[in-house]
Amino acid sequence: MIFFLSGIAIMAISGLPGLLMSSRDRRGQATAEILALLGTITTLIGLLSSTTLAGETVLRAGWSIPGGELLIRIDAISLIFLFPFLLVFAMSVLFGKDYWPQAQHPENSRKLRLFHGLIAAGMTLVFTAQNGILFLFAWEVMALASFFLITTEDDRQEARRAGFIYLVATHTGTLALFALFALLDLSCGSFSLPAAGTLPASAVTTAIFLLALFGFGLKAGIMPLHIWLPGAHAAAPSHISALLSGIMIKTGIYGLVRITSLFATIPLWWGWVLIILGVITGIFGVAYALAQHDLKRLLAYHSVENIGIITLGLGLALLGRSAGLPELAMLGLAGALLHVVNHALFKSLLFLSAGAVIHTTGTREIDQMGGLIRSHPWTAALFLGGAVAICGLPPFNGFISEWFIYQGSFRALVDQRLTLSLAILVAPVLALIGGLALACFVKVFGIVFLGAPRTPAAAAGHDATWLMRTAMLVLLAACLSIGLLPWLFAPLLEAATLAWAPLSGSGAITASMTSLVWIGILGTTLILFSGLLSWWLHRRSQQADTEQSTWGCGYLWPTNRMQYTASSFAAPLVKLFRFGLWSQEHGGKTYGLFPSRSSFTSHTPDSILDRLLLPLLHVLAIAATWLRTWLQNGVTSLYLLYVVLTLFALLLLSGR
Amino acid sequence: MLLQLLLHLLIVLLFPPLLLGVITRTKALFAGRKGPPLLQPYYDLHRLWQKGFVISRTTTWVFRAGPIVGLTVPLLAALLIPFGAIPAPFSFNGDLILFVYLFALARFFTASSALDTGSSFEGMGAAREVTFACLVEPTLLFALIVLVRLSGGFSLNQLLGKHLVTSWQSAGASLLLLVIALFVVLLVENCRIPFDDPNTHLELTMIHEVMVLDHSGPAFAMILYGASLKLLVLGALLVRLLLPWDSGNPGVDALIFMAGMLGIAVTIGVIESVMARLQLVRIPQLLIGTTMISIFALVLVLR
């Protein structure tokens, strides 16, 4: 435990020494990075040395804050969130060394590294704190640090706007969490969380669940609470987006998992609420992603989609608990938790490789790129790995977690109760999400890396440095190892499901061990056989004629700008989803027999944020301004009247 | 057991191109022509195998990965699915999900390989392929779900097991709807009329053929062979649904299965002869309609 705590402390202070040095001094950067990595390793040693799968490590100490207690407990659920967090954080630090060097960004690099360390410390505490006050403290450290990270480039208006939207959203969520912990205090008499499955049903149980859903849902980005997410992830530097998207939004999922574990009984409708939210989040998350042509906004919407998949798994798990089907509960939760890990790995890999591309091309616009596989061979291969993984395709890790969720839904299907067997609808929804995600990532990979360069900037550029490559390679290796050796991770998942709820007499995860081994074997066969074939094809194609151009249907002067673009690739699907996306299109019409130059742009704003919330808030702001000019009119006697009226009201209230 | 495995592998490796030959012959007969010999696809594969390559200078290794994955995936998928009464060599709980997702993997690489040529023509094909797949995958899942519900098992061997004979009596209507839905899936996934035409390359309405336009030589042979394997694998689902009997003799079982597959090939040939291609904008409507049919099949078994 001492290792664990000192690890947190080292991460928290890692950016401090740099503040004392000059803004161009490279030593500040080096110190911050070494301290951050040291902190990560120390925390990891602390975890490995003191924690076993079945047991839990507890630290309990007094704290002078009323109701507060330094209660830290590490169980299997915490471990599932902490392991990928430590890996992603370390890789983001490594990547950041060459991606955001002090010499090139003297104005904000020190700030970035200070909050990079702070957010890591905050998140480690969030995943382990078991006292409400301590949790909220860590939660706020994380929320504020991420605000400053999102606004790293605060000279850009886009970053400031994204940062403020995030700040408002996260504090609205925190408000709900204050109420949540107050209600928990009311029903169990302490701010420290009770043991799993011990909170009896009472009048406030439903309120606690709904508050958790709102507060944590805002952080996780469950639709329609995802408003802050696309802008914030697009505005932050890429290695920070990797951390935000990979881990920070998972703190919301962690909160939901933790809070739902407390209740002794769970009503059936909770599971259904989560499933319905998951369906909406998953399908519309990926539909919005399809309509984007800003690389990082697109990836951010995919995070929303994956949160939807995780929510589906969690919903199945809740259904299983309330219906007394331990197999359903275990498989659903195992799928959700494994998807948390998987999404952390492949999404950070994708954000890092997107960063490597944006770094050299200087644009986030997909349609300005093309043919980058020639100048960025490593980044392209690594991005391809991440793309296959995020589509949930074998032999990568995304497939394993979705497989668990499918298995869970089949368990619901064979039950005779209709309220349960309807949960099978999760399966075709997952298939639809998978199909749409595939379309989207074929689009991204194809338009960004394949074909011919669309602009001179895309043709120039160079591959990522070896340090950046290493960071991405480690993440890809982690993705592949879960995909090919899935049975090795089953014990951890089983321990976590048992820590979540006392599910007696169920070995659903142990029972799926054989299947996992088979999936691993077939995945390996797939890779080996494809490798063999490509070796053979490569040999056969040695004498191939490679100097021909692509068949252009006889047209002799094609230009690179004539290639299919991201918008045209996604157009058929975006049209299918026009009822929810409402894309805006401008231009695109040609007139006359010999048409002159014409232009076409399409844009898909976020319906909830840009079409609903911001106009609504605008009206609210006008009303508030009007109210203020009316109340605060500079007449002293009226102010005195307010004081008297307030006093009177207070007297009435206290006299009752 | 060993005999069954041997028969399964033999069918996987040798049988598929014959299906293409039967389809072509049926279409020829309908058109009043004699048509190429039934074994023509085998000659074609042999010829392509020995030819050289022409590779566009725009392309990279991704271009070659398309045919490779496109061949590996149906081969692996063929090992997961029972051929009539001959059980699949590999079978485990949840293999049906792997079965569905393997095809998605092939689609990812075929479409990427098409985009690698940098031709907007092939980009069009890739966009259509991934769009229609989004509408087909839920249908396939619904069909498999109905079978899970009817059999109570979670592996393809159990889904397509002996219970089907009794299921036809208890849930015949639902199974009939499934057959229709799966036949549409078969036609779409194998790029058949009325959704796509495997014979024309240079029409703006093409889907699959346009994606493989720039492949040549052995790589194109891989694509052709992979496509015929895909026809076999997806057809196997249908054949087992329609001919659920178990003779007890592996040899007879194999013959029944092959006869069923040839029947499907003839049916496809007949459909291609009597129908015209659908307008491209009608295809999504028809696919969504098919999904509705499969949902209806599920509702019938859930009630």
Write the layout of secondary structure elements.
The complex is a heterodimer of chains A (656) and B (303).
Chain A: H1 2-13, H2 16-19, H3 26-50, E1 57-62, E2 69-74, H4 76-99, H5 109-126, H6 132-150, H7 157-188, H8 205-220, H9 229-235, H10 238-248, H11 250-262, H12 268-291, H13 295-323, H14 326-361, H15 372-375, H16 377-390, H17 397-413, H18 418-421, H19 426-449, H20 456-459, H21 466-484, H22 490-500, H23 508-511, H24 513-540, E3 545-548, H25 566-576, H26 578-581, E4 584-587, E5 600-603, H27 607-631, H28 636-655
Helix pairs in contact in A: 1-3, 1-5, 3-4, 3-5, 4-5, 4-10, 4-14, 4-21, 4-22, 5-6, 6-7, 6-10, 7-8, 7-9, 8-11, 9-10, 9-13, 10-14, 11-13, 12-13, 12-19, 12-25, 13-14, 13-17, 13-19, 14-16, 14-17, 14-21, 14-22, 16-19, 16-21, 17-21, 19-25
Chain B: H1 2-14, H2 16-30, H3 40-50, E1 54-56, H4 61-78, H5 95-115, H6 120-151, H7 156-159, H8 164-170, H9 172-189, H10 208-211, H11 217-242, H12 250-274, H13 282-302
In short:
By secondary structure, chain A is mainly α.
Question: How does this model look, in words?
Answer:
The complex is a heterodimer of chains A (656) and B (303). With 656 residues, chain A is mainly α. Helix content of chain A is 70%, strand content 4%. Chain A has a two-stranded antiparallel sheet with strand order 1-2. In chain A, strands 4-5 form a two-stranded antiparallel ribbon. Chain A starts with a helix and ends with a helix. The mean pLDDT of chain A is 89. The longest helix of chain B is centred in the middle third of the chain and has 32 residues, at 120-151. Chain B has 13 helices and 1 strand, in the order H-H-H-E-H-H-H-H-H-H-H-H-H-H. The mean pLDDT of chain B is 90. Chain B is 71% helix and 1% strand. At the A-B interface, helix 16, helix 17, helix 19, helix 24 and strand 3 of A face strand 1, helix 4, helix 5, helix 6 and helix 11 of B.
